[in-house]
Specification:
With about 280 residues, the protein is an all-alpha fold. The protein has helices at about 1-10, 10-30, 45-60, 70-90, 90-95, 100-110, 110-125, 130-140, 140-160, 160-185, 190-220, 220-230, 235-240, 245-255, 260-275; strands at about 40, 40-45. The chain is built from 15 helices and two strands. It has a two-stranded antiparallel ribbon. Helix 3 (about 45-60) packs antiparallel against helix 4 and helix 6 runs antiparallel to helix 9 (about 140-160).
Length: about 280
């Protein structure tokens, strides 16, 4: 009876909870490839999730009446926060992202990648003499891998064919493996000052390459993703202790112009997706 009375006494909160549940379930179904049929140019799951997201936004914007209490105002504010999260959620079935928009997103990361690799090139001079050779060996090949990945990303944007996509897949996995290997080698540096410089610079590259890997995987078939993962011998789990989440969050927030809280949620979701895909 308490559940029924709560629903009766707090209809907006209950409705919001139901809509959030629809959006969440839709996300899980979409990730598993379950569509429940087509609806226009999309799917039934996509339609239900999109409508739930829109209704949640309208519900949150419903103004409080003059007689509303402080608790009602607080409840409305909370609903607004949940609506904002749902509306910002970059889910495939509500975002309508095409291969072209994802390709542009990948290319948009390339200036940051080139800048991060340039920082790597200048870092050796800041390290203790004994640590510079270790760092140089750990990051050897970054320039070539970066140039290839940037070129393949731009080539795919210009010509989004299966052949070019396969080349982009190979380039991003190869660079990701180089970055993972560099993190493991750099862990041998014990000088605190050198370690701080090394961790910071490699993490910049790691964040960008992981973001690009996730984007490439999002436009690749399940078979292609499985093949990419099979080429990944140094898994994310092996290098996670050397990753700087706070730096990654700051980079993602700056790149997309979004709050740190949302960037942190995105960063963790990307890591989870990459790990679940076998990387």
């Amino acid at each position: 009876m308490n559940h029924l009375s709560n629903i009766w006494n707090h209809p907006k909160t209950s409705a919001a909870g139901l809509l959030i549940s629809v959006i969440t379930i839709g996300s899980v179904l979409s990730q598993q490839g379950i569509t429940l049929g087509t609806a226009g140019s999309g799917t039934v799951v996509g339609l239900a999730s999109g409508l739930a997201t829109a209704l949640l936004g309208l519900l949150a914007r419903d103004p409080a009446t003059p007689a509303s209490s402080t608790n009602s105002t607080s409840s409305t504010a909370k609903l607004g926060a949940w609506a904002l999260i749902a509306l910002l959620l970059p889910l495939p079935f509500v975002s309508g992202c095409s291969e072209a928009s994802v390709a542009q997103n990948i290319v948009n990361w390339t200036p940051a990648l080139e800048s991060a690799v340039a920082t790597v090139d200048s870092t050796a001079a800041l390290l203790a003499p004994a640590d510079a050779p270790i760092f140089a060996a750990a990051t050897a090949g970054f320039d070539a891998a970066s140039n290839l990945l940037v070129a393949q990303a731009k080539a795919y944007l210009a010509n989004p064919s299966a052949t070019v996509l396969a080349q982009l897949q190979a380039a991003v996995v190869a660079f990701q493996q180089q970055v993972n290997a560099s993190l493991l080698l750099a862990a041998k540096i014990t000088n605190p000052a050198s370690q701080a410089h090394v961790t910071s610079t490699i993490n910049e590259v790691a964040t960008i390459v992981t973001a690009m890997l996730s984007l490439v995987a999002s436009i690749s078939s399940k078979t292609a993703v499985a093949q990419m993962a099979s080429q990944s011998t140094i898994k994310l789990a092996a290098v996670r202790p050397y990753l700087d989440e706070s730096k990654a969050v700051a980079m993602v927030a700056s790149h997309y112009g979004e709050p740190a809280e949302w960037a942190r949620a995105q960063e963790r979701q990307v890591e989870l997706n990459v790990a679940q895909a076998g990387f």
